[in-house]
Amino acid sequence: MPDGSEETTIRVLGSMAETSAEQWDACAGADDPFACHAFLSALEDSGSVSAETGWQPRHLVIEDEAGALMAAAPLYLKGHSYGEFVFDWGWAEAYERAGGRYYPKLQAAIPFTPVTGRRLLVRQDLPAADQGRLADTLSAALMELAGSLGVSSVHVTFPTEAEWRRFGELGFLLRTSKQFHWENRDYGSFEDFLDGLASRKRKAIRKERRAVAESGVTLSTLTGADITPAHWDAFFRFYRDTSDRKWGPAYLNREFFSRLGQTMADSVVLVMAEADGGFVGGALNLMGGGVLYGRYWGCVKDYRFLHFEACYYRAIDFAIANGLTRVEAGAQGPHKIQRGYLPVRTYSAHWITDPGFRAIIADYLDGERKDLEQELEGLARRSPFRQG
Fold it and tell me: Which CATH number fits domain 185-324: 3.40.630.30, 3.90.930.12, 3.40.120.10, 3.10.50.40?
């Protein structure tokens, strides 16, 4: 087993197919379903991620003398800012208005996935000092690649807080945002969770769940082999409907969901709603490392409170029943607070190659971070949990 002391080589991969699942996953670990070889390959092999869609793979890897992967970073050359959930459209517009060229840029991220996780995928079985050295080497390689490609910037979105701080020490600009997560406080049941809420909030949730139960809609929570192609057909229809109404063209195609079902079915938790003999809505989650991650939702008919039931309450039910520690409900949504999902910080780091533009962005981010802290203080006061 490599110990981190060997001579190393840094390479850029044009696709996940250029490395094996065994090698990549030795770096990614087993806890993050989005950083694994199967998920990233499903995006590429389905054509959802490609040069044609504006996500050209440029994965950075560090290999030892024998060619074994010791560290990796999922990385993409991007010609736009879609599918990132950390918005820099204003930066691009300002830079190009001043005569610069913002695109292409480099993005160290999981495409279309606002989920916190390691972006510097260093093998965790190495000594801590070697892990730190490889992480610094990988970070420096990001900046060097930006220079060799002549791109405007490198953006690392949704890294861990520890990685975020490491990037800051290396000169990246630091940005914060927020999401809403539910924490399992060793609840034995959904009623145990409700008992911790203020009376008014508890009654409101019970009212919402009762309304769904009385609407004629039945829900089932499926995982593994219980999910069939018919389920994926229906869910893709819901996903497309939501995308078309809210965001425009869908990022993911039908083939992606087939590949997800074929290679990662045991990580998928699919909530499906039925009425009048057919599927009418659904919510897609992935799980790993004791966490349930809410990703996509769609419904072809309006049922009051069904969104809250399928996306939030069924997720809590599943987490409690399976001993999961947390439910991450995705981006946006202060309405999640009253349903037990509290605000938490998320992070991103940005390397801007133009010194003048970098100074402008740094000043902007200083103000944005202060505004966020004030917002988080206000949101915390809206907690539905009983005081004390």
Answer: 3.40.630.30
